[in-house]
Amino acid sequence: MKQKTAVGGLLFVVLFLSACQQQEFLFNPFQGTAALEMAFLENAPSAQIYASPDGEEFEILLKLQNEGAFDIQRGFLTLGVEQDYLSIKKWDLEGTEIVLMGPQQASFLLEGKSKLNPFGSDAMVALRAVATLKEPQVETLATQILATACYEYFTQANTPICIDTDVYNRKGTEKVCEISDVSIGGTGSPIVIDSVGVEMLPDGGEFVRPRFTIHISNAGIGQVIAPEAVQEACSAKGLSHDLLNTIKIEEISFSGYSYSKGQMQCNPQKAKLEQGEASVTCTLAPALLQSNKPTYTTNLYIKLKFGYLQSISTETRLEKI
Rounded mean pLDDT of the chain? Predict the structure, then answer.
């Protein structure tokens, strides 16, 4: 009986480990439209804070979590308060990868989701602040605390496509695939590559030029900004119009041809969102892909880079003591 029990227990362990490995294998971080999530913790600040002419301390706790598929390697956080009544006294950043940059601003890093870290990395920001009410006639006052994050982020897609080298169907051979547009959707980022239109253009008879029209949208609640402007966006400076709604093309590639090598010609070179949407058309440069090759399937890889700005706020009421 003991031997059967031991064998049964061993079988259970093997099946359990096998199920865990299968779940790990099936986990795909490149889905959904989330990225950075921010939240003030309950009662930090509380709905009512005591204040006095000399100032009373209170605590602010803010949680940051990267729920997207990409690492945040350049992130900036700003705390905004009504300075007539509130001031930031101290940031408690011990044990975090957050670096203080000024009285109201810090920089941060957060890893995205992965098979080893399926929930993404998080960080807790703790601050000591001071509430002051000096006006004799004011006994109570409502005020807002604003947290703004600005960070670089990415989106990408890797999707099968058909490369038809026989544009006019003159070869008389059966093709292994047919050209069709591709639907993609969320890949672990608020910027979504919704779909890709696929065309084959003739190029002098001896070559073909695949052309891809990439349709992009902002599925998140934040503001898209140029990636190089993330630190500036989280400062008191305003951003110029050309830095808003701008998305940079990092890579477009297939079959060894790539944008980074100068072999793909994109128009425009940077996507500009209008009403949350944009399109970019990228075409293979002339005289690269010979038409005498058979029609084949391959993968199209797209990677875009952008900055993202998002804010949350909480209201508290100051009560004079």
Answer: 92
Q: What pLDDT score does 4 carry?
A: 47
- The pLDDT, as a whole number, for residue 268 is 96
Question: Would you give the distance in Å from CA 204 to the centre of its chain?
Answer: 41
Helix, strand or coil for residue 7? helix
The tens digit of pLDDT for each residue in 25-37 reads 578 999 999 999 9
Spatial distance between the Cα atoms of 210 and 202, rounded to a whole number of angstroms: 9
How far apart are alpha carbons 106 and 127 in whole angstroms? 12
Q: What is the rounded distance in angstroms from the CA atom of residue 249 to the CA atom of residue 226?
A: 11
3-class DSSP state for residue 102?
Answer: strand
Q: How far apart are CA 182 and CA 161, in angstroms?
A: 8
Mind giving me the DSSP string for 101-163?
EETTEEEEEE----SS-TT--EEEEEEEEEEB---TT--EEEEEEEEEEEEEEEEEEEEEEEE
Instruction: Read off φ and ψ for residue 227, nearest 5 degrees.
Output: -60, -30
Report which of 129, 118, 127, 128 is spatially closest to residue 65, judged by C-alpha positions.
118
Q: What is the DSSP letter of 17?
A: H
**Which residue from 124, 48, 55 is spatially nearest to 85, judged by alpha carbons?**
55
Beta carbons of 271 and 249 less than 8 angstroms apart: yes
15 SS3 class? helix
Residue with tokens 């604003």: 146
